[in-house]
Every structure is written in C-alpha cells, then in structure tokens.
Amino acid sequence: MSAAAQSTNLRGIMLMIAGGVLLTVSDAMTKWLTAGYPVGQIMTIRCVFTLLPIAVFAWHAGGLRSLRLGNVRLQCLRAGCAVASSFLFVTGLAYLPLADAIAFAFSGPLFVTALAHLMLGEIVGWRRWTAVTVGFVGILIMLRPGGDAIQWFALLPLCAALCGAFRDILTRKIRTSDSPVAILAFTMLAIALAGLTTLPFGWNAVPLQDLLLLATAGVVVGVAQYLMIQAFHDAEASLIVPFKYLTLIWGAGAGYIVWGDIPDFWVVVGSLVVVGSGLYIMYRETRRRRT
C-alpha cells in the first residue's frame, strides 16, 4: 500500500473515531435533557442548531447547488424513516442506560442485510444469513425474553434500528442523485418540523443553560454525522466500520461517569454477539464486492 493510501486510510479511521466520540457526547447530552423536556421539543431545538454546521458544510461543498434534491420522493421516504428512528431512539434514552440503548441500536446492520435482499434484490448468501441469525440471537440475549428482567423499553432503540435500516437502504438508492450534505440537511429539517408538531401537546420553558446544552448537542451531532460521512469517503468501509463499534465503549464510559450505570452481564454478552455478527456481515459484503 502506498504512503498516500495509508495516510488516507488513517484519516478515515481518525474521522470515524472522532465522529463516534462526538455522537456519544451528543447522545449523553440528549439523555440528560429527556428528564425535563418532551422528546419532540428536544428534537426540534437540537435539529435547528444541527442545521448550523450543515450550512457551513454546504457552503464548503459548493453552496446552494449542493443542497439540490434529485429524488424528492425517496428523500421524503428516507426522511420519514429518519424521523421515526430519531424519536424512537431518543425516547429509549429516557428509559435505558446510554450504553444499552447504543448496543441495541447497533443491530442496524442485521436489518440492513435482510432488507437489502427484500428491497434491493441483493443476493445474500448462507454465510451472511447465518450471521444475521446469530446477531438476532445476541439481541434475544440482551432482551432476556421470559425472564423477570426483560427490557421492554429496549424495543424502542431496537425499532429505531429497524427504521434506521430502512433509511440506510433508501440512502443507497439516492446516493447517486443527491449529495451527502443535501441528504443530511433535508433529514434534519424533516426531524425539526416533525418535532414542531408536538408543540400543542405542551413544551416547557427552556432556561439559558439548557438552551446552550441543546445548541451544543445539535452542533455536535451535525459535526459527528459529517465526520462519519467523510470517513466513508476517505477509506474503505471494511476498514473503518470496526472503529464505529468503539461507540459502545464511549457510551459505557459516559453512562458510568454521568449516571453511574454499569452494563449487566447479558447486555455485554449480547452486544458482543451483535457486534461480531455485524463485523462478519461487513467482511462478507466486502469480499462479495471484490469478486
């Protein structure tokens, strides 16, 4: 591998790690705010501030031309999936430890693999189907069905992961017609407007310190999303995706520092199974594309 390729790959890895850290910071801030504000209010205010870094990225990418939508119908469908995923995940944050919510959210690649066969007609071999099956076993381990400690609220980030999988499948369909910054901007605007519809159900007054926290969370999540998109642009997915799973460690650390949460044995075991399945699916996907 040339020195230039090594430098580009290293840049992609560092961007993915930085994006994961920032995303965890934003999730921790959001979880803190769920104790005092409705989910819709949090999502609207946070997304308004997320649009600020997106505006900077759009300007850097060529101005208003970079925000042009090539496939409005699929953009709307994708935005709807993103709205559902965001609201389900943030609601889950209100009831679950941070690391647990993140662990369930990482079941996304399992859903994506299954949906790619159904929606895109992609051929999924028996090895990847086996990995998907093992991954869902990992989810069952975390849920512990039939036990007294079943985490019913875990269904929220799990459903968020399913909606996120639909979002990612639709992203594959529109990535050739719409720029990443246009996709991100349209999605954040849709989430903000969806949250605004909850205003008649009662929003709370926001003191300055909480407004600053919401603004910071919005800016941070916008930067995190952009860094991750750029990471996939700079390096191969098979190289950088394993570093995305470090978010589980950041989430566990933040949960312990802020709330004193420690993931229990079954969540740790189940998340390891899910992560292992996700990494194997990525490995098989990479081999399929190279052959």
Question: Can you characterise this structure?
Answer:
This protein has about 290 residues and is mostly helical. The protein has one domain. Helices cover about 80% and strands about 0% of the residues. It contains twelve helices and no strands. Helix 1 runs parallel beside helix 11, helix 4 runs antiparallel to helix 11 and helix 6 runs antiparallel to helix 12. The longest helix is centred in the N-terminal third of the chain and has 31 residues. The radius of gyration is 19 Å and the shape is globular. The two termini are about 20 Å apart. The model has no long low-confidence stretch (mean pLDDT about 85).
State Rg.
19 Å
Structure summary, number of beta strands: 0
- The percentage helix is over 70%
Low-confidence stretches: none
Strand share of the residues? under 5%
Q: Number of helical runs?
A: 12
